[in-house]
Amino acid sequence: MVYKDYKKFLAEVLINEQQLSQRIAELGKQISEDYAGQDLLLVCVLRGGVMFLTDLMRSLDLPHMIDFMAISSYGVGARQTTGTVRITMDLTMDIYGRNVLVVEDIVDSGRTMASLLEVLSTRQPKSLKICTLLDKAARREVDIQLDYVGFNIEDKFV
Q: Could you give the domains of the chain?
């Protein structure tokens, strides 16, 4: 569904609502199977990841907790990352010895995610994986492992 106020700004629909719902359900099922019998902490990267996180949580069939981080790698008014990551809001929970799944809306260059993983890995989680709704691999500058991907998309502004 596209709200009428946004239609004038929209060139095309890349993924329709049915495709989105179905894929998120598939991701939730896979994550639930992979973490069955284990504790899982979902770390949402604000702000873009929050809607995806909400839908993903509904599709999980296992106990989990959530926490949030806000990071920035974009200058004021910029559409391109600077490569320098600032944590503007840190986690409230300790991740030491925990299974952590970072939930993000989109990964493109990979620089921001690589920096975030570097920060989180120093906190010694039991496992640290990534779930992204959108993967824009054509823009990848850093080799990172995306463990759960909703959709691979072309290099378009979304």
A: 35-73+84-158 (3.40.50.2020)
Euclidean distance between CA atoms 50 and 66, whole angstroms: 11
- Counting residues of the chain whose pLDDT is more than 70, the rounded percentage is 82
Distance from chain centroid for Cα 87: 16
| Gap between the Cα atoms of 106 and 12, Å rounded | 18
Q: Out of 108, 135, 147, 155, which one is annotated catalytic?
A: 108
Query: Whole-number mean pLDDT of the chain?
Result: 88
In the structure, what pLDDT confidence band is assigned to residue 129 with cuts at 50, 70 and 90?
very high
Q: Determine how β-strand 65-74 pairs with β-strand 81-89.
A: antiparallel
Give φ, ψ of 88 to 5 degrees.
Answer: -100, -15
Cβ–Cβ under 8 Å, residues 126 and 109: no
Q: Is residue 108 flagged as an active site residue?
A: yes
**CA gap 84, 155 in Å, rounded:** 22
How many Cα atoms sit within 13 Å of 68 on the Cβ side?
Answer: 11
Between CA 57 and CA 64 the distance in angstroms is: 8
